[in-house]
Amino acid sequence: MSSIVSVQDLRKSYADGFEALKNVNLEIEEGEILALLGPNGAGKTTLISTICGITVATSGKITVGGYDTRSEFREARALIGLVPQEINLEPFETVKRTVQFSRGLFGKPRNDALLDQILKDLSLYDKKDNRIMTLSGGMKRRVLIAKALSHEPRVLFLDEPTAGVDVELRKDMWNVVARLKEQGVTIILTTHYIEEAEAIADRVGVINKGEILLIQDKADLMVQMGQKRLRIELDAPVTSIPAALASYQLEIADDGAALVYTYDTKGERTGITTLLNDLQGAGLKMVDMETQQSSLEEIFVGLVREDA
Predict the structure, then answer these.
(1) Residue 149: which domain range?
(2) Averaged pLDDT, 85-106
(3) Main-chain dihedrals φ then ψ at residue 240, nearest 5 degrees
(4) Do 12 and 149 share a domain, yes or no?
(5) Is the distance from CB of 226 to CB of 266 less than 8 angstroms?
(6) Is 139 within a domain?
(7) Judgement on whether residues 42 and 191 belong to the same structural domain of the protein
(8) What's the pTM?
(9) How far apart are CA 152 and CA 137, in angstroms?
(10) What H or E segment, with its residue span, contains residue 288?
(11) Which of 32, 66, 155, 202 has the most CB atoms within 10 Å of its CB?
């Protein structure tokens, strides 16, 4: 796949010296779903706003579909759909007219069939003649997505799209995102919900303090999540791993009072049974054991903590 969004050496600083983005480099492949995780104030919204041309970068270069977002702003922006965090809609306007207006802003010809299909996909069609102020918060957020899709963008940015949305609506939106991907739309999602990244993303990125800490395929992260650690407490501490146990790649913990064995839960065999037998053969006595499993949330929290 080729990159549809390219961010090179991007920086954003303010007059008071605060750096919201620090030398960000990011390549987003066409047709993928990238989930961007990060705590509040990490720079997620600033990054999206800068790519979309809402915020002006201090330095660096951004291209969307090959167009420079500064020198070729109109061409680049026409390829982008943005669903912001804030719900800012005209309360007295109807759903259908709100979406039609957004399409017109991009100079697109009227296409009622297309807009009706978008509203149907978002379960908004039966409310197309309702005024915005009569809708629930979740439905208003769907209208924001419909507006962002009205001009048929190739890249869709979703900034915390399911914030404040109940679980059922959240899963409906995941299904919408999956359908958009099937149509070839590239989606960049910022979220606080770890399960959201696990459910729909192809790749996961972690940002903190304006810096990208990690960009990795979700499948690779799932492999890490598939690893479990068996902690074995010993009746007497050890200073080294006996040679007979070298093949297990054990780690010494708690000043020798425990050994940690990492194994793949998806493998045909864990090797635990033979390890316990070999422990006894090596003269080590076990007094207790427990298993621990890494999750995407633990990986995320660990990265952010290391960066603190």
Answers:
(1) 3-222
(2) 94
(3) -155, 165
(4) yes
(5) yes
(6) yes
(7) yes
(8) 0.75
(9) 24
(10) strand 286-293
(11) 155
273 token code pair: 């049974």
CA 307 from centroid of its chain's CA atoms: 18
Does any domain span residue 301?
no
Q: What is the CATH number of the domain that holds 231?
A: 3.30.70
The DSSP H or E segment spanning 47 is helix 44-51
Compute the distance between CA of residue 9 and CA of residue 22 in angstroms, rounded to an integer.
8
Q: Are residues 118 and 264 in the same domain?
A: no
**What is the rounded distance in angstroms from the CA atom of residue 292 to the CA atom of residue 271?**
16
- CA dist 280 and 243 (Å) reads 13
Same domain (yes/no): 178, 83: yes
User: Cα angle vertex 75, ends 74, 76, to 5°?
Assistant: 90
Shared domain for 217 and 260, answered yes or no, is no
| 69: Cα separation from own chain's centroid | 23
Instruction: Indicate the DSSP class of residue 109.
Output: P
Gap between the Cα atoms of 49 and 159, Å rounded: 10
What does the pLDDT look like over 63-86, one tens digit per residue? 999 999 999 999 999 999 999 988
- In this structure, the answer to whether residues 194 and 242 fall within a common structural domain is no
Q: What is the CATH number of the domain that holds 138?
A: 3.40.50.300
- What is the token pair recorded at 126? 């039966």
Residues β-bridged to residue 8: 61
- CA dihedral of residues 237, 241, 247, 253 (deg, nearest 10): 50
What residue ranges in 127-255 does DSSP mark as E strands? 155-159, 186-191, 203-208, 211-217, 227-234, 251-253
Q: What is the pLDDT of residues 163-180, one digit of tens each?
A: 666 667 777 778 888 888
- Taking the C-alpha atoms of residue 156 and residue 144, their distance in angstroms, rounded to an integer, is 12
For residues 109 and 209, state if they share a domain. Answer: yes
Checking DSSP bridges between strand 186-191 and strand 155-159, what pairing results, if any? parallel
Asked if 174 contacts 200 with a C-beta cutoff of 8 angstroms, the reply is yes
Neighbours of 115 (CB within 10 A): 21
